[in-house]
Amino acid sequence: MPQDPATVKAALGELEKTGKAGLQIHFPDIVITKPGTQTIKAATQPAPFISISSRIAKSKPTKYFSMCLDLDAPLPSFNFMSPILHEMQANLTGQGEPDAEGWIKLASDDEKPIAHWAPPGPPPFSSPHRYIFMIWEQSEDLASVEIRKRLGFGETVGLRPRPRWDQDACEKKLGLGKSLGSNYFTV
């Protein structure tokens, strides 16, 4: 079985240790605030947006880069296809002031994500899959065009490059460094 990438291991370890997520994941019918929240496929079909905790947000004007990975495909006990890239988005910026709980909604000025949202779809006989969102501060030289170029992506990221995603290589190619925060849910 593949090992979780180093950044993912660190993020999961931090979430387990503190119980505090740096991100909220917003779907129309559910907001994931607590790490490991279990939900159903139907609730996670529309593309989510994320909010960043004001305790980890950088001062304005900061751009952020986010990714979502499925860590358990096709089965948690036999995850040879993992991780699978489920979404990649650049140029995220804070939208206004923090809400009452200290969350700042993020949105992108790009017309589309680097890799569009691929909704969770674990097989019916599978135990729950973990879907982790991670966020990094985006350097000024990392515009969407440059990200696509460094990763060898065209305008659209189809299914072929998503399974067995090499997260460590991706982070190295993009010069990402340590992630600022994360959160995950299970389906």
Describe the structure.
With 187 residues, this protein is α+β, with helices and mostly antiparallel strands. The protein has one domain (6-43, 52-186): Phosphatidylethanolamine-binding Protein (Alpha-Beta Complex). It is 16% helix and 27% strand. A 9-stranded mixed beta sheet has the order 2-1-4-7-6-5-8-9-3, covered by helices on one side. The chain is globular. The two termini are 20 Å apart. The relative contact order is 0.25.
Arithmetic mean of pLDDT: 94
Which residue ranges are poorly predicted, with pLDDT under 50 across at least 5 consecutive positions?
none
Arrangement of strands in the largest sheet: 2-1-4-7-6-5-8-9-3
What is the CA–CA distance across the termini? 20 Å
By CATH reckoning, the class would read Alpha Beta
Q: Main beta sheet: strand number and arrangement?
A: 9 strands, mixed
Q: Strand fraction band?
A: 25-35%
- Full CATH superfamily name: PEBP-like
Query: What string, H for helix and E for strand, traces the elements in order?
Result: HEEEEEEEEHHE
Q: Domains counted in the coordinates: how many?
A: 1
Per the CATH scheme, the topology name is: Phosphatidylethanolamine-binding Protein
**Number of distinct beta strands:** 9
Query: Count the helices. How many?
Result: 3
Protein name: Phosphatidylethanolamine-binding protein
GO molecular function: peptidase inhibitor activity; phospholipid binding
